[in-house]
Amino acid sequence: RKESSAASDVYKRQVLNNFVTFIPNVFSPNGDGTFDTWVIRNIEKHPEATGQIFNRWGAIVYEGPMTAEGWKGQTNDDKDLPMGTYFYIVKYSPDSKALAGSVTIMR
Q1: What are φ and ψ of residue 76, in 5° steps?
Q2: Apex CA 77: angle with CA 71 and CA 83, to 5°?
Q3: What is the largest CA-CA distance in the chain?
Q4: d(Cα 90, Cα 64) in Å, to the nearest integer?
Q5: Dist CA 78 CA 59 (whole Å)
Q6: 36 exposed, middle or buried (CB, 10 Å; 0-12, 13-18, 19+)?
Q7: What is the DSSP string of 52-68?
Q8: Spatial distance between the Cα atoms of 80 and 21, rounded to a whole number of angstroms
Q9: Distance (Å) of CA 69 to CA 43, 72, 97
Q10: For the purposes of burial, counting CB atoms within 10 Å of the CB of 96, is it exposed (0-12), middle (13-18) or buried (19 or more)?
């Protein structure tokens, strides 16, 4: 885990199949062009990657592929989620161990 003064620089670090993957724990989908999507670095190396995002009550708010384009902080039907902390489960492939953690949306 790397920490710095910028909230966007806090990551969970994972080495998988010789690729270092960083999972940010905060992003700001506010349309300013900076950290607007939640992008897992090197996710493109894992084309079968999928994820689930849960709200604080455990309801799934997003479920689908995890791609290099990132998650925009929206539900599956493209509704913006409110600012807050959400929880994720990401699998790089159907047979891989699931990674879990939290991500905060700052608007």
Answers
A1: -60, -25
A2: 55
A3: 37
A4: 10
A5: 16
A6: middle
A7: EEE-TTS-EEEEEE--T
A8: 26
A9: 10, 9, 23
A10: middle
Average pLDDT over residues 60-64: 98
Q: What is the DSSP letter of 79?
A: P
Q: What size, in residues, is the chain?
A: 107
Task: Reduce the secondary structure of 65-95 to three states and give it as a string.
Answer: ECCCCCECCECCCCCECCCEEEEEEEECCCC
* 21-44 per-position pLDDT tens digit: 789 999 999 999 999 999 999 899
Structure tokens at 9: 């620089």
What single string gives the DSSP state of each residue in 11-50?
EEEEEETTEEEEEESEE--SSSSSS-SB--BTGGG-TT-E
Residues contacting 91, CB < 8 A, separation 6+: 49, 50, 51, 97, 98, 99
Distance CA 97, CA 107 (A): 31
Token pair 């270092």 is found at 20
